[in-house]
Design goal:
The structure is a single chain. The chain has 161 residues and is mainly α. The protein has one domain: Arc Repressor Mutant, subunit A, CATH 1.10.10. It contains seven helices and two strands. The chain is globular and about 60 Å long.
Length: 161
């Protein structure tokens, strides 16, 4: 057993600190996901995958991204359908779980069924829970980026010859 331990690559202090900071940030995001989405993390992951896949193409379109700040949400035509198979592949969840959860989300009006798959609805960020979650997510990513950069600056030149 001691041989296995000694064969593991050494993990430096910078990596340890960054991993701890990233884990704490992820925990804050997951806590908000549990709070905002009634504790159903599988449905949450599927919803994020659908929303990301639905609107991902539009994010590469400058006409959509560079809209005035007070512009209405993008039209439904900006959201493309995503197949259940692609959602299962991107999330790592079983296809049957994806199928079942999507059926529930369609029934509740969270997703829209279209030929070729499902898509997010226009205006989803206007819904309170989605806007609140997105605000926490953005804040945590910005905070984590700043903390990781601070760690890099703190350890700059340390241990180098």
């Amino acid at each position: 057993m001691p041989e296995q331990i000694s064969q593991r690559p050494a993990v430096d202090q910078v990596f340890r600190v960054k991993a701890a900071l990233a884990s704490m940030s992820l925990l804050r995001v997951m806590h908000e996901a549990v709070r905002s989405y009634d504790g159903d993390l599988e449905a949450f992951v599927i919803y994020v995958a659908v929303a990301s896949g639905s609107f991902g193409g539009a994010l590469r379109d400058p006409d959509v991204v560079l809209q005035p700040l007070d512009a209405p949400p993008p039209p439904d035509s900006a959201f493309r359908p995503v197949s259940r198979r692609a959602i299962a592949a991107s999330t790592g969840l079983p296809r049957e779980t994806v199928r079942r959860k999507i059926a529930q989300m369609i029934e509740r009006g969270h997703l829209v069924q279209e030929r070729g798959g499902v898509r997010a609805r226009s205006g989803v960020l206007g819904e309170r829970r989605n806007a609140e979650f997105a605000a926490v997510l953005i804040r945590e990513i910005e905070r984590s980026s700043a903390e990781l950069a601070r760690v890099d600056r703190m350890f700059e030149g340390v241990g180098q010859s």
